[in-house]
């Protein structure tokens, strides 16, 4: 049998008051119940903690040695319960999420602003990474929530769509394609192309589309991040294809954009979580915030 919190409280209260009647009142226990709790505790530890006579109540040497330990255990227990209550009440906590960089630049700040207004004591760490790494971080439990493109049906991950994103051409500011309001995929093969490295989801989407349309792109530069793509395009190294989420980022880097047609290619962007793993209160609140605040570009 283990020592219980009730027994610890009984021992500490009796040790502090040196009076069974007063200790019983503080703990809302009858004196017989208090005596039984202390007797059971002494049986567990293997000896007397209290020395009782008809007139006096004192601690044995073992009881004196154990008292500060028992007080510390009770304080730790109370602090742990307070911390747990604060977590559920959203008065403290930490939350890590992973999102595509294009989403963290364009859509996430508004949602986080709304979230902070409601829960100012929750500290949030944002991992802005490529789409594939978002999936990996959620799958391995390194973050509770991810925002990325839709993925193949998965047994261990749950995807909840937020909106549908379409794809745009990005070009240098003085590019001849900017004279058009829209640009056909077939026109891309007439210019040097800058793209993400394989096996990125974006690169796979571009390859699948061009293969199905019989289009051959002249890939001259490859990079790992959309920011690098945008900078290369802005400096005249070629053109590229990015999701509409990244247009704001491309403009900040000095590139221009136009919608892509023939075909119009779209992908779902949504919230990624692990199946069979319940979310914390903070993560649940963030998911609800994203669903209420995020709209299509």
TrEMBL record:
Xref: Pfam families: HTH_1 (PF00126), LysR_substrate (PF03466)
Keyword Transcription attached: yes
GO cellular component, one term: cytosol
Family: Belongs to the LysR transcriptional regulatory family.
PROSITE patterns for this protein: HTH_LYSR (PS50931)
GO MF, one example: DNA-binding transcription factor activity
Swiss-Prot/TrEMBL keywords: DNA-binding, Transcription, Transcription regulation
UniProt-recorded name of the protein: LysR family transcriptional regulator
Gene source species: Porticoccus litoralis
HTH lysR-type domain residues: 3-60
TM regions (residue ranges): none
PANTHER family: HTH-TYPE TRANSCRIPTIONAL REGULATOR YBHD, LYSR FAMILY TRANSCRIPTIONAL REGULATOR
